[in-house]
Amino acid sequence: MINYSNIFDNDGISYAAYRDLINKLLSEGKTTGPDDSEAMLHYTKMNVQRMSRVDKTIELQDSLIHILTGVQNKYLFLVISEGWCGDAAQIVPVFNKIATDFSEKFDLKFVLRDKNLPLIDAHLTNGGRAIPVLLILNEAGTLLDSWGPRPAVLQGLLAQWKKETTDMMEIAEKLHGWYAKDKTYTTQEELTKLFGKLE
To answer: Which end of the chain is more exposed for a tag (fewer CB within 10 A), N or C?
Structure first.
């Protein structure tokens, strides 16, 4: 049985601390997770730029703001992520923007996937440890809902691209091209539906 409350309180770190950790590891020639290969370092450096760009440009949609404004209770957001993950770089700034703009309603913390395998293994996507995963807890630490690792439409596209090619660089290019055009719109749309269930 996973103790979400314990993980949130004792292992979770803030968005700022998550970003600082990634930068600190990069300065030492490392990334989060066990693989410090050149490829993983390259992905991580790109992801730092992506997160910074989304942080600067993101604007919450009116429909999402409307739903968030109506939330009465306080909730905990526990995000499973890694610095090398491209999807995470495009999505976690959205979680941070929500938690920052509605700080009286949401408390956001991050844990690393590869240091919390029992946690991610309880939230697999098609049998895989795909991230990011957003876990929504109530104040008592009970799991209410989850979302991730990417918008449903992109999940479908990714499955299609993987049938067409095994070249991960080509797939990554298509993936990030989609995110760049979408400007977090679809992610916010799905989160609007998800948060609409919160009281």
So the answer is: N
Say what the pLDDT of residue 169 is. Answer: 86
Asked whether the beta carbons of 150 and 86 are under 8 A apart, the reply is no
Structure tokens at 193: 């539906």
Q: Are 57 and 88 in contact (CB under 8 A)?
A: no
Going across the sheet that includes 133-138, the strands are 106-112, 75-81, 133-138, 143-147
- Enumerate the domain spans of the chain: 4-195
Is it true that domain 4-195 has CATH number 3.40.50.740? Answer: no
What's the rounded Cα separation, in Å, for the pair 138 and 83?
A: 26
Which amino acid makes up residue 117? L
Q: What integer is the mean pLDDT of 53-74?
A: 97
